[in-house]
Automatic annotation (TrEMBL):
It comes from Fusarium proliferatum (strain ET1) (Orchid endophyte fungus). InterPro entries: AGP_Transferase, Kinase-like_dom_sf. SUPFAM superfamilies: Protein kinase-like (PK-like). This is Aminoglycoside phosphotransferase domain-containing protein.
Length: 69
């Protein structure tokens, strides 16, 4: 699924579990900063409120990724 700011993939595993992968769209300005701020915000909300927040298993920036994604 492609939105204005991200490309989203839902992975479904044989055991019935699923995961989401979200990658900033190529046209997004400052994608690394955007990802850092989103992760920090989700962690803050999870730690300081009762609002349900998806669990982040891993995240990274393009500069940390050998494919540049």
């Amino acid at each position: 699924m492609k939105g204005g700011y991200n490309v989203f993939y839902r992975l479904e595993y044989k055991d019935g579990t699923s995961a989401a992968v979200r990658i900033p769209s190529p046209a997004t300005k400052f994608p690394d900063e955007k990802v850092r701020y989103e992760v920090a915000t989700m962690r803050y909300v999870a730690a300081n409120t009762t609002i349900p927040v998806p669990k982040i298993y891993h995240w990274g920036t393009a500069e940390e990724n050998p494919l540049g994604l």
